[in-house]
Amino acid sequence: MARIAGVELPKNKRTEIALTQIYGIGHS
């Protein structure tokens, strides 16, 4: 798992999607 912003995320997730999940900025 890749550790981004102190949050472990699966490596198969895109960085942009991962960031949206971390910061709560999703595509409406």
Structure summarized in a few sentences:
By secondary structure, the chain is α+β, with helices and mostly antiparallel strands.
Explain what you see.
This protein is an alpha+beta fold and 28 residues long. The chain has one domain. The protein has 1 helix and 2 strands; from the N terminus they run E-E-H. It has a two-stranded antiparallel sheet with strand order 1-2. Strand 1 and strand 2 form a beta hairpin. It starts with a strand and ends in a 5-residue tail after the last helix. The model has no long low-confidence stretch (mean pLDDT 64).
Overall residue-averaged pLDDT value: 64
User: In what order do the strands lie side by side in the largest sheet?
Assistant: 1-2
- Tell me the domain tally: 1
Largest sheet: 2 strands, antiparallel
Poorly predicted sequence stretches spanning 5 or more consecutive residues: none
Reading the helices and strands in chain order gives EEH
* Tally of DSSP β-strands: 2
Give the end-to-end Cα distance, rounded to a whole number of Å.
27 Å
Helix content: 25-40%
Overall shape: it is flat
Radius of gyration: 9 Å
Strand content: 15-25%
Structural class: alpha+beta
Number of helices: 1
Question: What is the topological layout?
Answer:
Layout: E1 2-4, E2 7-9, H1 15-23
Antiparallel strand pairs: 1-2
Features:
single chain, 28 residues, two-stranded antiparallel sheet, 2 strands
